[in-house]
Write a structure and sequence with these properties.
The structure holds 3 protein chains of 3 kinds.
Chain A: E1 2-12, H1 19-26, H2 28-31, E2 43-51, H3 54-69, E3 75-85
Antiparallel strand pairs in A: 1-2, 1-3
Chain B: H1 3-8, H2 11-14, H3 19-28, H4 36-45, H5 48-51, H6 56-59, E1 69-71, E2 78-83, E3 86-94, H7 96-101, H8 103-119, E4 124-134, H9 140-160, E5 164-171, E6 180-190, E7 205-210, H10 222-228, H11 245-260, E8 266-269, H12 274-286, E9 289-293, H13 306-311, E10 317-322, H14 327-336, E11 341-348, E12 352-357, E13 360-366, H15 367-370, H16 410-418, H17 427-430, E14 441-443, E15 450-453, E16 460-466, H18 469-474, H19 476-492, E17 497-506, H20 513-533, E18 537-543, E19 547-548, E20 551-552, E21 556-565, E22 582-586, H21 597-602, H22 615-630, E23 636-639, H23 644-656, E24 660-665, H24 670-675, E25 682-686, H25 691-700, E26 705-711, E27 715-721, H26 728-731, E28 740-743, H27 744-759
Parallel strand pairs in B: 4-5, 9-12, 17-18, 24-27
Antiparallel strand pairs in B: 1-2, 2-3, 3-6, 4-6, 7-10, 7-11, 8-10, 9-11, 12-13, 14-15, 15-16, 16-21, 17-21, 19-20, 22-25, 22-26, 23-25, 24-26, 27-28
Helix pairs in contact in B: 8-9, 8-11, 9-11, 11-14, 16-27, 19-20, 19-22, 20-22, 22-25, 23-27
Chain C: E1 4-9, H1 16-25, E2 29-34, E3 45-48, H2 68-78, E4 82-86, H3 88-95, E5 102-104, E6 112-120, E7 137-143, E8 147-149, H4 152-160, E9 164-168, E10 192-196, E11 202-205, H5 223-237
Chain lengths: 86, 763, 247
C-alpha cells in the first residue's frame, strides 16, 4: 500500500456560462486592474488516497471526480498529483 | 443507428420535422427548398414547445373574456386590472425536461424564464409559486431531483429578490422518470405602462440587451453541429442552460427603467427559440418584418455557427424595438446596469425575418410562417377501453364505499395521513426560499393561499396553485375541473375574488391517441370549470411528451389562480382563531374515495370511483363564503381537500395550537366522512353569536351547513354518530363509534416530521 | 425637515426598496446611493441593504467592498458616521473590515428563510435606543451565509466591550445555545446575530428589521431598530425627524 496526494480541479466546461467568473471580471475596474480576462471560477478539492499503487489511487480519484465532485453536464475536471508519500 | 444510416437520413427529419411539415415549410417560403439555416429556424419554431401545434385547436375552446382582462392568452402573461390604475400580470410555465436532466439549472432557468415573461409586460415581479411533482420520495434519483430542483428555485428566486410564497410538492409514482417543475410568477404594474411584445414601426432599431449569446440549449438542432464538426469535441456540444440570477436582477431593473421612461416601442424576452423566436414573434404581432445583422450579435464564444447564434437559448436576454432617436438613452440605461447592449437589426415593412452576415443574406422567411402561421396538427384522441367514472353528484352513498378501515383506529389513520409525504408540512422545502423579500408577504407558504398586500392601497393579491393528478389519472376531465375548483376555492376562502386562471397542461405524447384524449379531456374540464366559476383563462403553457421509459405521467392540469381582496383587514386564514368559536362544515359530502390520499394509504375498493364535482354547487359555495367573509361573520375558513375532513380539522388545529371537539354525522361510510376528498366543502369557524347568521347566509346560497362542534382544548376529538358509524362502540350496542381523539401535539409531531422522514433528510 | 438617510444600491441589492419603505415609515427621507458614486450626498446615516450584491459570487459581500461607494462609506464611518448593514449589508461590512468577524455558510449548508427571535444586548446604542426593552423581537432571516464567526479572542473582546448588539434567543428569551438548531438556525458562534464596531457607530445584523416593520407583515418588532437609526441620525444631523413612529 502507498499513500498519494491528489488535487482535483473542477471548472465550468468551456462555453458554459460562468456567472461567478463574469462577476469577478466585472469588479476588476474597481480595483484598477487591467489586462485580465476570461476568468473562470472553479473549485479545487485536495485529498489523500491510500491504495495499492499509483494507478489504483488515480482510479479512485478519477471515479470520485467523475461521479461526485464534478457535474458532468456543466463541469470539467483535471486531476493533479501533488506528491506521494511512501 | 450507425453513422452511415444517420447520414442518409434527410436533415429535416434529423431536426425533428416530418415530411409533411417539410412540405408545409416549402409552401410557406414560396415553393423553394429551405436552406439548412432556415430549416433549423423552422425546426425550433415549429416544435411543440414554441408552436403549440397539437394543442392550439383545443386551447381556442377556453373562455378568455372576463372583467378587467387587459391582456390574455398569446401575450407573455395575462394582465388583469385591479383598480386604482394598477394591474396584475401572472403566468405559470413548465420547465420539466430541463429539470429532469439537470435539476438545479433546470429549475433555476425555469424561474428566470417565467419572471422575464412578467417584467417584459412592464410589471415588477412580486411573487413566485412553484408547483413540483416527483416520483417516490424513497427513491435515490427522486431525492436527488427534489434537492436539486428546490435549491435551483431558491438559488434563483432568492438572489433575484422575488419571494417564493407558495406552490405545491406532490409525490406520485407516475413522475418517477419525468418530474414536473411548474413555476408561476406574479407581477404588479401601472396599467398605462403595459408593454406588448411587438416590433412596430419600420425603421426602428432591434436592440438586444442582457447576457451575451453562447451555445446554451441548442437542443434538437445539435445535429447541425455534429454535421459540421469534423471531430466530435464534446466541449463544443450544445449544453445545459445555466442561469445567472444576478444578470436577471439587472435585466429587471434595466427593462423596467426603459419602460418607465418610455424608451421602447415593444419588448420581448428571449426563451425557447432564442433570437429567432423573439424577432419573428414581435414582427408578426406588429405586422412588420425584421432584418437581423448576424455579425452584430454579442457572443460569448468564438466560432459560433449562424444557426447556433439564432436559436441559442442563452438566458437573461431581452429584445426591444427602439426608435433611432432613443438609442443613445437606451444604451445609457443598459450600460449603467452593466448589461451588454447592441443594435442587431432593423424593423422592416416586408413582413420577413431576414438574416445577413458580411453582406450575404443567409435566410429569409415570412415572420408569420414561423409563428402565427406555423403548422397545426388536428390530432385524434381516443379514450382507453376501461376507465372508472365518478359517481354523479347527489348519488347516495353506496355501501360498497365501506372500506378497510373497519377495525382500524381512525386516529392512527389520521396521524399516518398527516405524516404522509403528500400531506406533511412543506417547511423543509420552503425554508430554503426567501418568502418575505419585498416586504409585502402577508401570508407565505405553508398554509393555503399566499397573500401579498398591494402597497399604497387597502388591497391584497391572493394566489394558489393546485393540480390533481390522482383523480386525473382516473378521469382527466374531472382531474382538471377539480384543480380549477380547488385553486379558486383556496382563493375564495380568504375572502378574495378569483380574477383569472393560468394553467400549465402537463401531458404525454400527443401522437398517442390515449394521451391526446387525456389532453382533450383536461382542456374540456378546465374550460367547463372556468365557465361555471366565471373566471377567465388568461394564459399558460402546454408541456407534452412527459413520458419516460416507465410510461407517461398522470395527466396533470396545474392551475394557478390570482384573486383580489379589496380590504386586507378582512383577510381570513385557515387556522382556528379562538377557543369557543363554533365549527361548521359548509357543503355536502359525496361518495367516492378513489384518487384520495386515504386510498393511496389504505387502498380503494375496485368498484369505487373518485368523488363527483357539481360546478354549480362549487360556484355557490365560493360566492357564499366570500359574502360571509365580507360581512365579517367568519373567523377562519379551511378547504377540505387532501386527507378529507379529518385532515382539514387537524391542520387548522396544528396551525393554531388549538384543539377542537366535534361530532360528525355519518350517513354510511366513516372513511368517506372522515377522509373522503369530495370537493366543494369548507370548514368554517365563527364566534358563536355569528353562527345563526352564517348558517342562514349559507342556506340562502343553497348550501348545506352542519354544525361540527367547538374550538378549544389541546386535543382534536371527532365523534362519529349515525347509521353508518362503525367500531367497537357500535358492537357494544351504541350507535356512536369510538371517537377519534388525538392530542394536537401528536398531530403536530406527525405533520412536522413526515417530509424529512420520507426524503431521508432527518439527521 | 426629515433626516436624509442613504440606502446604498449595489447591482444585485434586492432589499433596497423595502429598506427605503421602512425608513420612510419611520419618518426619514431615504436617498438612494448608487454603487458607482464616490460621494454620499451629505446624508446623515447610511444603510447597506440586503440582497446579493454583485451576485454574491465568489464570497458574499467581497466584490461590493471594492466599489467606489464603499470607499466613501468607509471614510464616513471613520469620521463617526452612522452605518447599518442588514443581511448582505452586514456581509459587506464584515468583508470590508468595518465590523469584526465573518459570515460563513449556514450550518446546514442551505439557504434559510424563516422567522427568528433576537434580543438586543444593549439599549444605549444608536441602533437600539428606541427598543424600550431587551425583550425578544420577531423578524425574518433570509440568507445562505449568516453563521457569525470570529476567533475566540475577538469573541471575548466583543463580549467584554459590549459590542455584541443582537443575539438569537430561544422561546424563553434566553440567548440560544450554539447548537440550538431552531433558535440559532445558522449556527452563529455565541448566537451572535449582530455586532458593533469598536467606535459604536457601525452595526451589522443578519435578520431583516425592515421586513418586520408593520403589523400586516406579521411583526412590527423590527420597526424600533429602524426608528432608532432614524432618530440617531436626526440628532447627528441636528434635524428633527418628522412623524416618527407612524406607520
Amino acid at each position: 500500500m502507498s499513500i498519494h496526494r491528489y488535487a482535483v480541479n473542477v471548472t465550468p466546461k468551456p462555453g458554459i456560462l460562468d456567472p461567478q467568473g463574469r462577476a469577478v471580471e466585472g469588479s476588476l475596474g474597481h480595483l484598477g486592474i487591467e489586462g485580465v480576462s476570461a476568468i473562470r471560477v472553479g473549485r479545487r478539492v485536495e485529498m489523500t488516497v491510500d491504495a495499492a499503487d499509483e494507478a489504483a489511487a488515480r482510479a479512485v480519484v478519477e471515479r470520485l471526480a467523475a461521479e461526485l465532485l464534478a457535474n458532468p453536464l456543466i463541469e470539467a475536471y483535471a486531476i493533479e498529483s501533488i506528491g506521494g508519500i511512501a | 443507428m450507425t453513422v452511415a444510416e444517420r447520414s442518409v437520413e434527410p436533415l429535416h427529419r434529423r431536426l425533428g420535422l416530418t415530411d409533411d411539415e417539410l412540405d408545409a415549410i416549402v409552401d410557406r417560403v414560396g415553393g423553394r427548398d429551405p436552406n439548412d439555416l432556415e430549416l433549423a429556424m423552422f425546426s425550433v419554431m415549429w416544435s411543440e414547445h414554441c408552436s403549440y401545434k397539437s394543442s392550439k385547436p383545443l386551447l381556442r375552446t377556453l373562455p378568455t373574456a372576463g372583467e378587467g382582462v387587459v391582456a390574455g392568452p398569446g401575450e407573455n402573461a395575462g394582465v388583469i386590472s385591479i383598480g386604482d390604475g394598477l394591474a396584475v400580470a401572472f403566468k405559470i410555465e413548465s420547465h420539466n425536461h430541463p429539470s429532469a436532466v439537470e435539476p438545479y439549472q433546470g429549475a433555476a432557468t425555469g424561474v428566470g424564464g417565467i419572471l422575464r415573461d412578467i417584467f417584459t409586460m412592464g410589471a415588477r415581479p412580486i411573487a413566485v409559486l412553484d408547483a413540483l411533482r416527483f416520483g417516490d420520495p424513497g427513491d435515490a434519483r427522486t431525492r436527488h431531483l427534489v434537492d436539486g430542483v428546490v435549491r435551483g428555485v431558491g438559488g434563483y428566486g432568492n438572489c433575484v429578490g422575488v419571494p417564493t410564497v407558495g406552490g405545491e410538492l406532490v409525490f406520485d409514482p407516475s413522475y418517477i422518470g419525468n418530474p414536473l417543475v411548474n413555476v408561476m410568477a406574479i407581477g404588479l404594474l401601472e396599467e398605462h405602462r403595459l408593454t406588448l411584445a411587438s416590433a412596430p414601426g419600420p425603421g426602428n432599431l432591434v436592440v438586444l440587451f442582457g447576457s451575451t449569446t453562447g451555445r446554451d440549449g441548442i437542443g434538437g438542432a445539435s445535429v447541425l453541429a455534429s454535421a459540421t464538426f469534423t471531430h466530435d469535441d464534446p466541449s463544443k456540444r450544445p449544453s445545459v442552460q445555466v442561469g445567472d440570477p444576478f444578470a436577471e436582477k439587472l435585466l429587471i431593473e434595466a427593462s423596467l427603467e426603459l419602460i418607465e421612461r418610455g424608451l421602447v416601442e415593444g419588448l420581448q424576452d428571449l426563451g425557447a427559440g432564442g433570437i429567432t423566436c423573439a424577432t419573428s414573434e414581435t414582427a408578426d404581432r406588429a405586422g412588420t418584418g425584421i432584418a437581423i445583422d448576424l455579425d452584430a450579435i454579442p457572443r460569448r464564444e468564438p466560432d459560433m455557427e449562424p444557426f447556433e447564434v439564432l436559436i441559442s437559448e442563452s438566458q437573461e436576454r431581452m429584445c426591444a424595438a427602439v426608435r433611432p432617436d432613443r438609442w443613445e438613452e437606451v444604451r445609457e440605461v443598459c450600460e449603467r446596469w452593466g448589461l451588454p447592449v447592441a443594435i442587431i437589426g432593423r424593423v422592416t415593412d416586408d413582413g420577413d425575418l431576414s438574416v445577413t452576415s458580411a453582406g450575404h443574406e443567409l435566410a429569409r422567411i415570412p415572420a408569420r410562417a414561423l409563428t402565427s402561421d406555423a403548422i397545426v396538427h388536428e390530432r385524434a384522441g381516443s379514450a382507453p377501453p376501461h376507465r372508472r367514472a365518478a359517481p354523479a353528484p347527489g348519488v347516495s352513498i353506496d355501501p360498497s364505499d365501506r372500506l378497510p378501515e373497519r377495525g382500524m383506529d381512525p386516529g392512527a389513520v389520521l396521524l399516518a395521513l398527516l405524516g404522509s409525504a403528500n400531506l406533511a408540512s412543506r417547511r423543509p422545502i420552503f425554508e430554503q426560499y426567501d418568502s418575505t423579500v419585498g416586504a409585502d408577504t402577508v401570508a407565505g407558504p405553508g398554509r393555503g393561499a399566499a397573500v401579498l398586500r398591494v402597497r399604497g392601497t387597502t388591497r391584497a393579491l391572493v394566489a394558489s396553485t393546485d393540480g390533481n393528478q390522482a383523480v386525473g389519472a382516473l378521469d382527466p376531465y374531472l382531474g382538471a375541473a377539480l384543480s380549477v375548483a380547488e385553486a379558486t376555492r383556496n382563493v375564495s376562502i380568504t375572502g378574495a375574488r378569483p380574477l383569472g386562471v393560468t394553467n400549465c397542461l402537463n401531458y404525454g405524447d400527443p401522437t398517442r391517441p390515449e394521451a391526446f384524449w387525456q389532453l382533450q379531456e383536461g382542456v374540456r374540464g378546465l374550460a367547463d370549470a372556468c365557465r361555471a366559476l366565471g373566471v377567465p383563462v388568461t394564459g399558460g403553457n402546454v408541456s407534452l411528451y412527459n413520458e419516460s421509459p416507465g410510461g407517461a405521467i398522470a395527466p396533470t392540469a396545474e392551475i394557478g389562480v390570482v384573486g383580489l381582496l379589496e380590504d386586507v383587514a378582512l383577510l381570513v386564514g385557515p387556522a382556528f382563531v379562538a377557543e369557543g368559536d363554533e365549527i361548521l362544515l359548509i357543503g355536502e359530502v359525496t361518495p367516492g374515495l378513489s384518487g384520495s390520499a386515504y386510498a393511496a394509504l389504505a387502498g380503494a375498493a375496485v368498484e369505487d370511483g373518485p368523488p363527483g364535482l357539481d360546478l354549480a354547487r362549487e360556484a355557490a359555495l365560493q360566492a357564499g363564503i366570500r359574502e360571509a367573509i365580507a360581512r365579517g361573520l367568519v373567523a377562519s375558513a379551511q378547504d377540505v381537500s387532501g386527507g378529507g375532513l379529518a385532515v382539514a380539522l387537524a391542520e387548522a388545529a396544528v396551525w393554531s395550537g388549538l384543539g377542537a371537539t366535534t361530532r360528525v354525522a355519518v350517513a354510511n361510510s366513516p372513511a368517506v366522512e372522515l377522509f373522503g376528498e369530495s370537493p366543494s366543502r369548507i370548514v368554517v369557524t365563527c364566534q358563536p353569536r355569528f353562527a345563526p347568521a352564517l348558517t342562514l347566509l349559507a342556506r340562502q346560497h343553497g348550501l348545506s351547513v352542519e354544525p361540527l362542534g367547538t374550538v378549544g382544548g389541546d386535543r382534536l376529538v371527532i365523534e362519529l354518530a349515525g347509521a353508518g358509524a362503525t367500531g367497537a362502540a357500535e358492537e357494544r350496542g351504541s350507535r356512536i363509534a369510538d371517537a377519534l381523539e388525538v392530542p394536537v401535539a401528536a398531530l403536530r409531531h406527525a405533520w412536522d416530521h413526515g417530509l424529512p422522514r420520507a426524503l431521508g433528510w432527518e439527521d | 425637515m426629515p433626516v436624509r438617510i442613504g440606502v446604498v444600491v449595489f447591482p444585485g441589492s434586492n432589499c433596497d426598496r423595502d429598506t427605503i419603505h421602512a425608513l420612510a415609515l419611520a419618518g426619514a427621507e431615504p436617498v438612494e446611493l448608487w454603487h458607482e458614486q464616490a460621494s454620499l450626498d451629505g446624508v446623515a446615516a447610511v444603510v447597506l441593504p440586503g440582497g446579493f450584491a454583485y451576485g454574491d459570487y465568489l464570497r458574499a459581500g467581497v466584490i461590493a467592498r471594492f466599489s467606489p461607494v464603499m470607499r466613501a462609506v468607509a471614510a464616513f464611518a471613520g469620521d463617526g458616521g452612522l452605518v447599518l448593514g442588514i443581511c448582505n449589508g452586514f456581509q459587506v461590512l464584515a468583508e470590508a473590515g468595518l465590523v469584526p468577524g465573518a459570515l460563513l455558510r449556514n450550518r446546514k449548508l442551505r439557504f434559510l428563510g424563516r422567522e427568528v427571535r433576537i434580543a438586543a444586548e444593549r439599549l444605549d446604542t444608536p441602533f437600539t435606543h428606541a427598543l424600550g426593552s431587551r425583550g425578544p423581537l420577531r423578524m425574518p432571516i433570509a440568507h445562505g451565509e449568516g453563521c457569525y464567526f470570529a476567533d475566540p479572542a475577538t469573541l471575548d473582546a466583543l463580549e467584554l466591550e459590549g459590542r455584541v448588539l443582537f443575539r438569537y434567543v430561544d422561546g424563553d428569551g434566553a440567548a440560544a445555545a450554539e447548537d440550538d438548531r431552531f433558535a440559532n438556525p445558522n449556527g452563529s458562534l455565541r448566537a451572535i446575530a449582530g455586532v458593533l464596531n469598536d467606535a459604536g457607530n457601525v452595526a451589522g445584523l443578519m435578520p431583516h428589521p425592515e421586513r418586520a416593520s408593520e403589523p400586516i407583515l406579521g411583526s412590527d418588532q423590527g420597526a424600533a431598530i429602524i426608528r432608532s437609526l432614524v432618530e440617531s441620525a436626526a440628532i447627528a444631523a441636528n434635524a428633527a425627524p418628522a412623524a416618527v413612529g407612524t406607520r
